[in-house]
Amino acid sequence: MSSKPKYKRILLKLSGEILAGDKGYGIESPVINKLVKEIISVHECGVEVGIVIGGGNIFRGINAGDQGLDRASGDYMGMLGTAINALALQAVLEQKGVQTRVLSAIEMRAIAEPYIRRRATRHLEKGRIVIFAAGTGNPYFTTDTAASLRAMEIGAEVLLKGTKVDGVYDSDPKKNPDAKHFKSLTFMDVLQKRLKVMDAAAISLCMDNNLPIVVFDINAENSLKGIVHGESIGTYVS
């Protein structure tokens, strides 16, 4: 591992499900503590860290129809779920002595600052970790799209998507033992092969603005730090 980080500013995208561990819902204390340890290891190298976190461990807007709700209401409920996760992540980071700010796309002044791009970049410049809550603030857009958008807005050099698998495969590696792992892909490969990297809107946004994506296993020890220092981990999309 080289001593100098390859990236100065990153945007880390995490799914809410990761916080749930094996339970599948809620927030598991050992999981969030391990996650925070990985994030701090990168922050201590002088890397500026922005985070977008999903809310799938609390509520998935896309499943709203199953519960008799309209999609827009479901999506707003999902955005509130992301705020719960952002506050949990902030609390654990600050317990470990790292200054953290939550900026929300939906105004919730008692618990988070409203999202303002210049304010976000100022926090990053001051060495604070910034967590972006409530997605884009609009229904019908996923937190993947929010991650792409925030990455562009703050001038991140790379979008790192932390998942439970070690990259992108041509089929589900849990169901298919012969699934092929991709070391690198182009944005067009992802769109044409309909690979489950991020949704099409997020991929198109990254492609139009030439922002590379790395998909990796966030649970693997030192994987985040390795990527930031230029190691070939996970799948590189560019």
Describe this protein's structure.
- The protein has 238 residues and is α/β, with parallel strands linked by helices.
- The protein has a single domain, classed as 3-Layer(aba) Sandwich (Carbamate kinase), CATH 3.40.1160.10.
- The chain is built from eight helices and eleven strands.
- The strands form two sheets. The chain has a nine-stranded mixed β-sheet, with helices on both faces.
- The longest helix is centred in the middle third of the chain and has 25 residues.
- The protein is globular.
- The two termini are 22 Å apart.
- The model has no long low-confidence stretch (mean pLDDT 95).
Query: What is the CATH topology descriptor?
Result: Carbamate kinase
Overall geometric form: globular
DSSP summary: helix tally: 8
Secondary structure: helix percent: 25-40%
Structural class: alpha/beta
Distance between the termini: 22 Å
The biggest sheet, with number of strands, parallel, antiparallel or mixed sense and barrel status, is: 9 strands, mixed
Regions with little confidence, pLDDT below 50 for 5+ residues:
none
Q: Please give the number of β-strands.
A: 11
Number of domains: 1
Strand order of the largest sheet: 4-3-5-2-1-6-10-11-9
CATH architecture: 3-Layer(aba) Sandwich
